TrEMBL record:
<keyword id="KW-0808">Transferase</keyword>
<feature type="domain" description="N-acetyltransferase">
    <location>
        <begin position="12"/>
        <end position="162"/>
    </location>
</feature>
<protein>
    <submittedName>
        <fullName>GNAT superfamily N-acetyltransferase</fullName>
    </submittedName>
</protein>
<dbReference type="Pfam" id="PF13673">
    <property type="entry name" value="Acetyltransf_10"/>
</dbReference>
<dbReference type="InterPro" id="IPR053144">
    <property type="entry name" value="Acetyltransferase_Butenolide"/>
</dbReference>
<dbReference type="GO" id="GO:0016747">
    <property type="term" value="F:acyltransferase activity, transferring groups other than amino-acyl groups"/>
</dbReference>
<dbReference type="InterPro" id="IPR016181">
    <property type="entry name" value="Acyl_CoA_acyltransferase"/>
</dbReference>
<dbReference type="InterPro" id="IPR000182">
    <property type="entry name" value="GNAT_dom"/>
</dbReference>
């Protein structure tokens, strides 16, 4: 079974990001295979800095390994206005349920913050993923050249109370 389709085989911990994670998260964004080719310019200069981590609820999925925990993915929850700003899973870790774990964690955090819904402006290649994890398509975020020269699907997560 390939690593893209195998289930999670190592313990995964989701923890709050800290300033020292900033460079690893930036590398994960800039190195994402989902942003190759025509999409590369959208993340070429992107930076997840310590200031961003401090200002938002950023959480990382860490796998236990010989290096003491490798970042497999992360997300950023912005509370006002409520939005899932970033969600990335390392290319080599995709297809193993880590994105689903991050979404479930995000929903729990959103619920704890008193949110009942939040929006996501999706990258085109991630559209199917958001459908699969329960987000509802609500519209289109129109192109904003030169930063983003293409339209993007807009979704909403409805956060049920427990």
């Amino acid at each position: 079974m390939s690593s893209r389709t195998s289930p999670i085989s190592q313990p995964i911990t989701i923890r709050r990001a800290v300033a020292r994670d900033a460079k690893r998260l930036t590398r994960l964004v800039r190195g994402s295979g989902a942003y190759e080719g025509k999409y590369a310019a959208a993340v070429a200069g992107y930076r997840v800095g310590p200031d961003y981590i401090e200002a938002h609820r950023v959480f990382v999925a860490v796998g236990a390994d010989e290096h003491g925990g490798r970042v497999l993915g992360f997300y950023s929850l912005v509370l006002a206005p409520p939005e899932l700003d970033l969600l990335f899973v390392a290319d080599e870790a995709q297809g193993r349920g880590i994105g689903r774990l991050l979404v479930a964690h995000m929903q729990s955090e959103a619920r704890a913050a008193g949110l009942d819904r939040l929006k996501v402006v999706s990258h085109l290649p991630a559209e199917d993923f958001y459908h699969r994890v329960g987000a509802v398509r609500t519209g289109t975020a129109f192109a904003n050249p030169p930063a983003v020269p293409w339209d993007r699907p807009e979704f909403e997560f409805r956060i049920p109370s427990e």
